Batch of 2 targets.
Target 1
Amino acid sequence: MRSPGIGPVTYRQLIARFGTPAAALQAVPDLARRGGGKAPTLRSRSDAEREIAQVDKLGAKFLSLGQGLYPRLLAELEDAPPLLIAKGDLTLLDRQAVAIVGARNASAAACRFARGLAHDLGEQGLVVVSGLARGIDSAAHDGALETGTIGVVAGGIDFFYPPENEARQTALYERGLVLAEMPPGTEPRARHFPYRNRIIAGLAVGTVVVEAAPRSGSLITARLAAEAGREVMAVPGSPLDPRAQGCNQLIRQGATLVQNAHDVLEAVRPLQPRLASSHSPYEPGEPQWMDGDAGALGIVEDLLGPSPVPVDEIIRLSGAPSGAVQMALLELDLAGRLDRHAGGKVSIRPA
Amino acid sequence: MRSPGIGPVTYRQLIARFGTPAAALQAVPDLARRGGGKAPTLRSRSDAEREIAQVDKLGAKFLSLGQGLYPRLLAELEDAPPLLIAKGDLTLLDRQAVAIVGARNASAAACRFARGLAHDLGEQGLVVVSGLARGIDSAAHDGALETGTIGVVAGGIDFFYPPENEARQTALYERGLVLAEMPPGTEPRARHFPYRNRIIAGLAVGTVVVEAAPRSGSLITARLAAEAGREVMAVPGSPLDPRAQGCNQLIRQGATLVQNAHDVLEAVRPLQPRLASSHSPYEPGEPQWMDGDAGALGIVEDLLGPSPVPVDEIIRLSGAPSGAVQMALLELDLAGRLDRHAGGKVSIRPA
């Protein structure tokens, strides 16, 4: 998972195919060669042991996709993080959660609203998930600190960003829960935030957006929530208020307008039965791929181009069994020749 | 139409049955007797002539349901006013119209918004309809005064209410259009406003609500627009603003969130083809009732009670032909024994 070139989707497919990380690690060089590239540089055993010791020393824990403590709703995402680092009260992962996200530079009124909403949802037994950012995120965590709140950080579990949130993040270690996908010590970079946002959206039965500018990170979280089949909710504002435009736009696109905790509960209630169904991503039902159909690799390679196309289309056009196509894609991926795009699309780089 | 006890629905049914007002007037006493009551006191010919002279003297005109100048979209309402009095530019009735309504005590910002929206919609060729009330209504008329606006008053065409709107109403006589259902000189009373609101909703392809309190007249207009199959649009606001609650509630119930003229145009565009279809309420296609089924009257009378029930249900339960049931209802109506309620429901008073 820490090896460059192996993302969550590839990781998940390797485990689905080879059963264990150890078996997958052994197979990767061979698969990459068949895909026509050189093998990714795999992280060493000692790198892994160093991180494990580090996490242990921080008083944090690993949560591994497919294992008991791993949040079940998050596991439903196609690109669920294979590994999470968690510090705090792990029992919060067993309760239904709602995400509250919004602008870092939100108005004081909107922050007060977010804090009140988080408080009221907490009183109703819901855990509030957010991103420990300035503005709405901070207000949401504050409102639900007494009842249960989870902060997902973009960098390492031990990195405070923004720096002034150190006290808040520390409070969450002690009275809430902090989750990170990146290894300890990682300073968050721009590209980390969308990854963080998918975790926020994935943990929650629904996401409430409070004040968001058009094209902001909060709208990305909302889109990811919608793609994951979760409820998207938005708090409206006057068209005269530029900070309301993102939320109003979301409502126009079909998000549920919410004005209070009651509205949120009404919107997420139909989703509650999902929580009852135990769902492990590696249980039977996961596609089992066929081996030994070397011919599929050439066909798939020919079908791919620089423009992203849906995997389903490649399967259909190839005429090959779906398992054989998936294996060919995995080989190209490990050879560093496949790019994975949003919506399950893939494209190929020239060999 | 000016006779007490004959409302728009009854009037329309009488004309549908008897062809002309003269024939209907002759038939009313007989029908009422068959319904088990005494005939309504019919207004005299001289009363009618006096009103016609008065309207003429005011420089106003009658528009009669089923005749050329009568607004076609309004004629689609089941309870379309049989007669309208109009003063101003009648050509405005030929253009597509959007209603803008809202709170009388709206915020200055909302009034400015309404004026700007009306202006922008006017620039796009739409006529703006409203109710010549304080607040949002006045702002909407002002914004569209140059491009075309219709004010529907609750009282007589010559009555200024609120009094401070005299200059605005006079401007609409000269550069827009004013419509009234009540006879000249009528001072508007509380019960007149919902009637006025149905005309606003009925004239327009869609109604935009800007700032409205829960349970306000603007929400009645929105409901009437929805019942008439027109587009209902609402301008959102912060949940912290009590004046936004009515609009936010409308959006939660399915109204389209609009932030500007572009959003309004996008919402009403699919309805434009309706304007092309010439639709006269008295053309073939109108149900023709069967005569001479005196037995239906007794059955219908037995089926009715003091609680309102849908006419469709009475028809179904009676086992009688729909035309015979309608005739029986008309007879009871003219006998002063039938009450008509929203949603096509009826109830009976004891004989």
Note: Chain B has 15 helices and twelve strands.
Target 2
Amino acid sequence: MTEVIFRAAVRADVPAIVALLADDEFGAAREAVSEEVDAAYWRAFDALDGDPRNTVIVAESAGTVVGTMQLIVIPSLSRRGTQRLEIEGVRVASTHRGAGLGRRMIGWAVDEARAQGCKLVQLTTDKRRVDARRFYESLGFTATHEGMKLPL
Amino acid sequence: MTEVIFRAAVRADVPAIVALLADDEFGAAREAVSEEVDAAYWRAFDALDGDPRNTVIVAESAGTVVGTMQLIVIPSLSRRGTQRLEIEGVRVASTHRGAGLGRRMIGWAVDEARAQGCKLVQLTTDKRRVDARRFYESLGFTATHEGMKLPL
């Protein structure tokens, strides 16, 4: 595999990230990709940028964004004051799937969680993505919880 | 039901919140309750306090904390830059269960999500709590996702 680096996203990455979010069987219907990136995406990036507990990560290979995920550090009183890391919005470019990039991304996130003193990593995955559940289980995650959503 | 008010927790609420977290079939084994509240809880509260995207809420009735939950606002690029509200650590005192307090708490959180411009509310609930899933479903949540955890 070509060398891949992981880094925090910068504003100029937003169009590539949006394209990745849409490059997905469910995301295609949920995201808006056009010549001009919708203002809502820029607003969301600006809201995230500078928050030390919210980081959009990109995986870059040969100058191209080929993966993304969002890492959220959540301090919490529960479980004896355990800080947890939540992973959201994991996407790997369709051109780069099946080559172990997702595994390296999650491994990188888990290392980051440890480095930040988190004692728990959590994420939810759509039940329709049966392969995703198996993938996360192979990395040591267990599906102990129901992930419940309420769109407003 | 006695009048209940919802408010952001203050430092002095920490012992009561820890007691609530432990007042639970699974929490009892996970939390440390003693005369002196473990330093980790104070550190966790101090880490949360002042973060505009992290708020521990308490439900107070007649001067006593009878419920708690943590609300986390998560800006995100996915779903067209949708900001979401995550609910963690929901607990109702055993003395106050079955009287609709949980329903009011979640309703309050959903109103708060709307007020903050969130388009999605999410939470995970332990699969062993079968009543909890039904409870959230009755409030409009759907269990579309697997909630996966990796303790470190």
Note: The mean pLDDT of chain B is 91.
